[in-house]
Specification:
This protein has 51 residues and is α+β, with helices and mostly antiparallel strands. The protein has a single domain (2-50), classed as 2-Layer Sandwich (Macrophage Migration Inhibitory Factor), CATH 3.30.429. It contains one helix and four strands; from the N terminus they run E-H-E-E-E. The strands form two sheets. It has a two-stranded parallel sheet with strand order 1-2. The protein has a two-stranded antiparallel sheet with strand order 3-4. A hairpin with a 2-residue loop joins strand 3 (45-46) and strand 4 (49-50). This is Tautomerase enzyme. It comes from Desulforamulus putei DSM 12395. Pfam families: DUF1904.
Length: 51
């Protein structure tokens, strides 16, 4: 599973990874990898404007 987002700190990242892992395992998948990709604010545009 890949999560692409703005960095929210290690604590939140760990909680999200555990939540995703728990859910995917609950539907029958044993091995779960979660990878985080971080957006860089000045390189991310929404409606033509960067953050």
């Amino acid at each position: 599973m890949e999560v692409a987002w703005f960095d929210r700190g290690q604590e939140i990242q760990d909680r999200v990874a555990k939540t995703i892992t728990s859910f995917i395992q609950s539907v029958g998948h044993e091995g779960v990898d979660v990878m985080f990709t971080f957006f860089v604010k000045n390189r991310y545009c929404e409606n033509g404007e960067h953050f």
